[in-house]
Amino acid sequence: MSNIERAPAAVQEANFSSGVAGASMGEGGEYGSIARRGGDAGKASVASSRVVAPDVLRGLILALMSLDHAALFMGAWLHGTPKQTESAATVMMQWNFNAAYISRTLTHICAPGFFFLMGMGTVYLHRSRTRLGWSSARLARHFGVRALALTAVSEVMGWLLMRGRGALVINIVLIGLAVDYLLTGLLCLLVQKTEKAAAVALDRWQGDKQQPERAPLLTDAGAGEEQRGQDEAGERMASQRAQTTAFWLHNALLGVLTYVTIFWNVWLSPTHGHCSSVQAFSSASELANAEAVVLLVGTSAAGAAAGGAPSAPVSRWGAWFDFWFYPVQNSMVLSGFPPLGWISFCVLGMLYARIMLHKRWTPRATVAGNLAVATVLAALFVATRLLHVGNLSEGCLRMAEHLAHPDRNQYLASVKSFFYITKYPPSPSFFALTMSVNFGLLALFSAIPAGVAKAIPGLMDYGGSALFFYVLLSVPARYWFEHELSDRPPNDWERTRGLGDSAAFWITWLLGLAMLSPVCRAYGRFKAAQSTDSLWRFF
């Protein structure tokens, strides 16, 4: 029997080698998954399964995301750990109150987790669809169609949530996800081609003297002997030694690409993430008006801060270049998530999925590996604080504790200072901290029994229907529960509408999660019955 036909293990088994169809952002492999039968050859597969640990992580991310967006749409507090949100090279003068700071810091893992899991998902999908006989052209078309569908959803949501802004392109986050999904999918196809060519070249270079066994590096354990030593086209494979060498060479290149694509947010920064020693503002209102480009996309403050005037390009390369690397707000584009500013998380997801697919990992090895990565990233985050490397906020913290001790390391002045990270665009310190937490959660969800993981209330429902959850929660929340805030608006430059930091806000958020759980579960059952290339399976 193949591995997905065996009874589920008591602890999650980290085996990605079984062919699974029907992948969306997280399907396509078996990562401690519980088998689920059903469908036919035109649908998922006779025996299909979803990955459990990443799905539970995705569900938790969605629940936290809903808290962040509920606070935004229901006017609970200003959307940032400081009052001026987490923008690169921007003077920060006042911290948000404690509940807002803690909530916002916790929800920082959401966007990195989404991009990371999406990068994983492209590898799973590529693997499963290749085993179903899909060509590279069909896979490329599939990635393109889904990216267009996600872009269309983003535009519709943007027009609904921010009508009247006048922008033609509204990228709250989904267009960034769509572009990076397409780029990561195409990168998967490129790696497949170059890895095979590199293995063949290595054999030729070595003269293939010893003629070792030729077998695909990532075949199913139960594959027939007639499949061994041949690729999808029936051609003789390169030697296993050459394949292994090419595999790890490509992993090393993906590691370098991850480093480059997160650090270019610092390298391309007009000020390299430093605030001028004379840069200061007399009030939060002045600061809000000065930073129109980098204010949080999606709040009513963004329009007020911009004063209705188009913002100048951030760089000398113009607005089109800026769209890819910086938050942009002008008469045509409102974008808070530049695609190339966030693609490092997708590349890391690709690298992680490739390593997990490489061999059958024991549950203990999976947990230990995830904890090891989490520990290394946590150490790197501490290094960014101590060594002043990888931050986009150098000299930018001007709160009372920093003004009282101007010569002290700004990140060591307080607990809030230590955990302050720049999100727009993400800094390497943001990358290290948020991905450390995400890997720690992956270790936790990998360690617990699969049945227990699936029983955590709501998380598997949200995780299995990620985009559906996002749309259903975000659109109505802004309009159903807001009222005029007369005593304590969540920002200090305009009156706003919302619930404020009240019991009504927290109860509404929890009730929203409870109501959405069975709806997402029902939608998950519906999409599981659709064909492998159905757009319904993407939501």
Automatic annotation (TrEMBL):
Basic and acidic residues compositional bias, start-end: 225-235
Superkingdom field: Eukaryota
Keywords, ordered alphabetically: Membrane, Transmembrane, Transmembrane helix
Segments of this protein annotated with the region Disordered: 211-236
UniProt keyword Ubl conjugation present: no
Transmembrane intervals: 59-79, 99-123, 143-162, 168-191, 246-267, 332-353, 365-383, 430-450, 462-481, 503-524
Protein name: Heparan-alpha-glucosaminide N-acetyltransferase catalytic domain-containing protein
Record organism: Pseudozyma antarctica
Higher taxonomy: Eukaryota, Fungi, Dikarya, Basidiomycota, Ustilaginomycotina
